[in-house]
Amino acid sequence: MEHVVILGAGFGGLYAARALRREPVRVTVVDRRNHHTFQPLLYQVATAGLNASDIAAPIRRVLRKQKNTSVLLAEATAIDPAQKKVIFEDGELGYDRLILAAGASHSYFGHDEWAAFAPGLKTVEDALEIRRRVLLAFEAAERELDPARRSAWLTFVVVGAGPTGVELAGALSELARHTLVREFRHINPCKARIILLEGAGQVLPSYVPELGEKARKQLEALNVDVRTGCLVTGIDEEGVSIGDRRIEARTVLWGAGVAASGVARTLGVPLDRAGRVLVQPDLTVPGHEDIYVVGDLASLKQEDGTPVPGVAPAAIQEGRHAARNIARTLRGQPRLPFRYRNRGSMATIGRAAAVADFGRLKLSGFLAWLAWLIIHVLFLIGFRNRFMVLFSWAVSYLTYQRASRLITGETPRLLEEEHRRAPELEPRKDDGAARSQPIPEHART
Amino acid sequence: MEHVVILGAGFGGLYAARALRREPVRVTVVDRRNHHTFQPLLYQVATAGLNASDIAAPIRRVLRKQKNTSVLLAEATAIDPAQKKVIFEDGELGYDRLILAAGASHSYFGHDEWAAFAPGLKTVEDALEIRRRVLLAFEAAERELDPARRSAWLTFVVVGAGPTGVELAGALSELARHTLVREFRHINPCKARIILLEGAGQVLPSYVPELGEKARKQLEALNVDVRTGCLVTGIDEEGVSIGDRRIEARTVLWGAGVAASGVARTLGVPLDRAGRVLVQPDLTVPGHEDIYVVGDLASLKQEDGTPVPGVAPAAIQEGRHAARNIARTLRGQPRLPFRYRNRGSMATIGRAAAVADFGRLKLSGFLAWLAWLIIHVLFLIGFRNRFMVLFSWAVSYLTYQRASRLITGETPRLLEEEHRRAPELEPRKDDGAARSQPIPEHART
């Protein structure tokens, strides 16, 4: 039996594996994590609305009934197309057919030094790191006595107004204005500023201008400060620069560029500017018809000249198509070209706020949000997750509460930093005499 | 208004804060974490049954309606009783009355070098670390070709058969034998060995022998290898030594000793052997009637000469009692001595298996488990948690599935270690010729 290796268990890889379950092949799914992540809901983990395990399922569990498939926890460092091998740091794995679905991570457009100050949102770890920074920022603001520093802790900048940026900005605003609002004594979380920066001229640049405008209105109704046509020129620990202008902000989140997984470079085939593999219409790599590339790692133009977008439905369709082409090859049939069927796109902004584009049907507001909710929950893998997510959401919707507000990790790093920086600022330094504690005016409401 | 500082938001501190909510004092609750942890259910997080946020609630949220109370995220390094100050690394906080509820962590009986190899279970971070090690051990076993090494990956040793150790051992057995059983292709998780070591002569040494014996029987029914009268003399990366005997095990968990928080040492008052403060019957510190100590940090003998046990109900009662004594002092009334009311003790072993001692009424098996479940879920703080936990449990009970099986953290450390140690062992090293993959005999069932 031929051995099909699938590298990466995101949407592309997982759906490819599923499509091979009844084919006469032996399948090995390799991923460096033990779980498949439902990336469209990661922003909910980052903003404390959902648990990490609500939106991530163990790959073994998802594929446990698929007898021809095994799962391997390992990180590939290279592909050797001549020897037909995937190389790990500590070993290698031979294949007859390879489906490369290793995905993408963030791109800081040549400014990798920004990564430390502006985490992106691709993995569960990213989401937990963002959650940690956001929650610690409010804690630090509560302890801070200097108004300018307090204001910098309460300023949150999201760079990039694509779907991820829009979702993060909207959810941050709701977290500050509804969830945290009564819990602090010295700050008013409502005063938190959420600033969404976008280089292009509209919010959601990949959407039609009409929906971009509606998204902007809905964001502004949530008190998000939306600034389009703003190219970020610098990010550091203290804030963001846009040319001469400066925003003092201790929390900056990155929702802008993506960069293809580095493993593609080891193939020795032509890549596009973002490092993605220029695949042939049947999704194989030029010169290596036993290697398929799917998902965010594949670069393919549609018949109308536009690229297949880097979204989950495209990855799913490509994964299935690669599996189908492998099955056809084994039966001696020719491979078919891939055609992306665009079933619509949508972005959520907040509670009952979203935009959706189903071609002729364009929705915004509550209806778009409901469509978004139903489709995303239905696509979650595994019954329990689906039910738990829906239940969590119902509770959040009714109570404005967010369930997963733990700050984990032994040391609150950001706080420590601040304290090293400003040892003279002491929290509530009462001496025996001054026993009534001054509470800032703005927090008394 | 007097300023009451409560150090630590475990059971003792949190219930003290709640009991002060209508008193004419200003309360500050200080904790180095932003969440209160429901420690009795931590073992469920460690064995992937519950999410961390199911059993932990943000302290701010729990106390948000209590207008006289603020919450501070900070780690105390010392107490200065003369100046009436709590000292942090980066500041200090004055108090009029102090309730010290900083709790305890693990004690390795003078062998702190064991900590790296045998994590204990006191915090959410501990639980996530144990979960990570346990799940990675099965992943490593799946990749391992050498039978002896594979067997070491599949051997789990729990040191200490108190309630925590018993719960961990039982839950590990269920994880291996029910949850993971169909998901691996090269190992049979049922073959995992769970070994529970106890220095004393019985399981649950603090319980009556009759219940200890019943607990042992229930553990053995779950295939746990229970060994009493076994004093561990060494723990390293590869296993556990008991005198001349040796158990090769890559995963060792620590459920044995506890050590009081170090902050007690800075008080300059007499401590007991475990580092706990020897408090007076009214829970104040000798010579400092403005300082109360409650929970695991307090050492107090009952009238019959036995110590107040280090359990959650005792901490809750002490926290409330300290608050009551502060209120009485402010009203000019004398402080009252603390009396522990033992409402019973219970330990759970697994699905429908537990022991409970309510004095005359002693239960084991399903009834004890039901009592345990009801009491623990009722005590969980916050409606949503309670409901979610009950729901998670119902699903686990019916399906044997465990929801929270994520391995997070960028690098699977244990695996990397193993690979550095054994670079010659490659995962499924297929060459082009050998296309049929050998599957170990024992995994074919």
Overview of this structure, please?
- The structure is a homodimer of 445-residue chains.
- The first copy, chain A, is α/β, with parallel strands linked by helices and 445 residues long.
- The first copy, chain A, has eleven helices and 25 strands.
- In chain A, the strands form eight sheets. In chain A, strands 5-2-1-9-21-20 form a six-stranded mixed sheet, covered by helices on one side. Chain A has a four-stranded parallel sheet with strand order 13-12-11-17. A three-stranded antiparallel sheet of chain A has the order 6-7-8, with no helix packed on it.
- In chain A, β12, α7 and β13 form a beta-alpha-beta unit.
- In chain A, α4 runs antiparallel to α5.
- The longest helix of chain A is centred in the N-terminal third of the chain and has 20 residues.
- The termini of chain A are far apart.
- At the A-B interface, β5, β8, α4, α10 and α11 of A face β5, β8, α4, α10 and α11 of B.
Secondary structure elements and pairings:
Two copies of one chain form a homodimer.
Chain A: E1 2-7, H1 11-19, E2 25-31, E3 35-37, H2 42-46, E4 56-58, H3 59-62, E5 69-73, E6 76-80, E7 85-88, E8 91-94, E9 97-100, E10 104-107, H4 124-143, H5 147-153, E11 155-159, H6 163-179, E12 193-197, H7 209-221, E13 224-227, E14 234-236, E15 239-242, E16 245-248, E17 251-254, E18 257-260, E19 277-278, E20 284-285, E21 288-293, E22 298-299, H8 312-330, E23 345-350, E24 353-358, E25 361-364, H9 366-379, H10 383-399, H11 413-421
Helix pairs in contact in A: 1-8, 4-5
